Amino acid sequence: MADLEELYREIILDHYRSPRNRGELPSPPAQRTEGFNPLCGDEIVVTIELTDGVLTDIKIAGQGCSISQSSASLMSAAVKGKSVEDVHATIDTFKRLMLVHESQLEESDVEPEAVDLKSLGELAALQGVVKFPVRIKCATLGWNTLAQALEEAGA
Amino acid sequence: MIDEARVRAQFPLLKRELHGKPIVYLDSAASSLQPQRVLDAMTNYYEHSHANVHRGVYGTAEEATNLYEGARRAVGSLIGAKHSPQEIVFTKNTTESINLFVGSWGGANLGPGDVVVLSIMEHHANIVPWLVLQERLGFEIRWIQIDAQGELILEDLDTVLAGAKVLSITAMSNVLGTINPIAELAQAAHRHGAIIHVDGAQSVPHLSVDVVDLDIDLMSFSSHKMLGPTGIGVLWARRELLTSMPPFLTGGGMILDVRTDGFIPADGPARFEAGTPPIAEAVGLAEAARFLEELGLEEVRAHEEALTAYALDRLFEAFGDDLVVHGPRNPDRRGGVISFTLGDVHAHDIAQILDSHAVCVRPGHHCAKPLMRHLGVPATARASFGIYNTQADADALVEALRDATKLFA
Ligand SMILES: Cc1ncc(COP(=O)(O)O)c(C=O)c1O
To answer: For residue B137, which of B216, B289, B313, B315 sits 20 to 30 Å off, Cα-Cα?
Structure first.
């Protein structure tokens, strides 16, 4: 089935099998934030280290389905070493990619802006998720947790 | 013997396709399908007899009242109730039935120093109402534990029940499939002066249940899991017990008299049925109860037990040690609920891949998080059977799972 192959792309399965930046940073000093998806029981722990406005390190722990785990792994690779400003921008872009469906789901009338897929790099592999609306929450779990971690760290 | 072809032909939803393939419905533990005659009974009611129940004097109001009250008899007959008109309360679902029991009886009878006994395999519906009331009244909750086979540990039952006022427990686990020894539990509870409430959501649709033989005090169950419509559930309670319980939801229909300075509640089921009840749903549920009685619950059980045995054999044959099935391995100790994990493939991914084969299973914690914590698994995939399922459905499950393991190999 074509859609299923789009969902489970090789990059996604690869990040599920060998997640990047796995584990937890000692906290403190790192900021540690937990995220839950109460519907399916997925849990993610994001620990981040911020130095002079740069996200110098990030680790991901927890457990969940291939989509939530690979999305968090891809995220960690995408944001590590970036300025906080760029991290926020990446989160925004990714969430807009997912919003296409979320807004339709919730019948919101916010027009999602077009997303420049090239700017997303490997993350674009996750766009197949939008065809499976119930899985969007899986894909965004790590990202929402990272956004919350930044907020809690005051960044 | 259940005539598979004849039974299947009566369920219209089985005729539809998903993604161009015939549907393989393996989610009856969440909600069952409905036979045509249940749908027809409800349509016929709306087309010919609809009116609000009670107090109406004209012809259709009387018909509607008779259909609604008659539904108590049909449901009572299925579970062996002695005094159906006085013992069957219609609610919204199992969850509301349990809330009614906990709020009404628990609110009036529990306080500091009292003990409530539950089991670790309960659905949230039989946990959260107790936790909420506990916050208010401060009683103790004790938990019956389970062994590695997913069966209740009953060696220390007398210690657990000592001083208890109520035992509230499921007759069949919606995750493990475990069939609990309700008659034995009822005896033990009564020996300790406790009453017993049974969560029959999973047992009433699949097992022969007789509340008098079991000697239980109350039982909650849902229409939508027993071939009936959504929107209606049942609380059965022994007549004397129901009479002693104070009102729960209040308003019209549940009173004898109302003045500006007080009210007198109605007797019997009416006391607990405030507002316009789910009339069409009661008509549909009654038809579902008659359908099940005509099939015979012994026959239903025999069919589902054989199918469960077949499915477990095929699954283990195909996946060996990669497959972990929670709950008893022995089909005569369990219902047709198979919760499993398969290698490294997460339950969500399993369910997603199965969907592309039109195989409907449910991933997740199945509203039993204390049990999932005990099992040490965050989520399982659950395939569950109804009378309309066949060996071909079990084969389709195995084939679709092969595809999932290939994708994640
Ligand atoms: C054992 C058990 N109890 C209670 C419930 C709750 O039923 P309902 O959602 O119909 O209230 C369920 C169904 O999910 C169940 O399986």
So the answer is: B216
